Amino acid sequence: MTTLDSGFEDALRDAALDDVETTMREEVGPMFKQTARQNFEAYASRNDYDIDHIWQDATLSVDRDDSSVSVRVEWPELTALFEFGVSPHTIEGDPVLHFYYDRIDQWITTESVEWGSETGGIPESRAIRDAQNWLHREVNS
User: Fold this and answer.
1) Rounded-to-integer distance, Cα 12 and Cα 6, Å
2) pLDDT (tens digit, 9 = 90+) per residue, 24-65?
3) How many CB atoms lie within 10 A of CB 97?
4) Is 105 left (phi over 0), alpha (psi -120 to 50) or beta?
5) Is residue 91 domain-resident?
6) Would you put residue 73 in left (φ > 0), alpha (ψ -120 to 50) or beta?
7) Rounded to an integer, what distance in angstroms lies between the CA atom of residue 96 and that of residue 91?
8) How confident is the model at residue 141 (pLDDT cuts 50, 70, 90)?
9) pTM of structure
10) How many domains does the chain have?
11) Contact 93, 111 (CB under 8 A)
């Protein structure tokens, strides 16, 4: 009869977590970020947006504890505006707004702005959610 070392289960768990951590850091996380980037690039191209900072500034981290490995991607501030979209709305100043308006090449001072009234707002990109769905299908196939 073969006798297993008393630390066998711990060693096996650690080896499995090592493998999962490496796979997440080197393959799964980067594939997810790349897919989201491709989705954002297509969205930016369709809408004539300059949003390269979204994928350039996104950070990937892999964390591990005694029993699990997690992957986290952090997107830069305001990414959610493009991911979920923004309906036209009124921005109120407190007491006034000051902003530069490219189209007329001048500074504006006003009490409120009907933001998105000409553009219809910002359409949702679904870049991150579609990348998550893609990754889910890849992992489960």
Assistant:
1) 11
2) 999 999 999 999 999 999 999 999 999 999 999 999 999 999
3) 14
4) left
5) yes
6) beta
7) 10
8) confident
9) 0.80
10) 2
11) yes
Name the token pair of 4: 């297993």
> Could you write out the three-class secondary structure of 69-128?
EEEEEECCCCHHHHHHCECCEEEEEEEEEEEEEHHHCEEEEEEEEEECCCCCCECCCCHH
Going by the DSSP 8-state scheme, the letter that residue 64 receives in this structure is E
Query: Do 44 and 112 lie in a common domain?
Result: no
Neighbours of 128 (CB within 10 A): 23
Determine the structural domain holding residue 128 and report its residue range: 1-77+124-141
Number of Cβ within 10 Å of residue 134's Cβ equals 16
130 shares a domain with 93: no
Per-residue tokens: 114? 């009907």
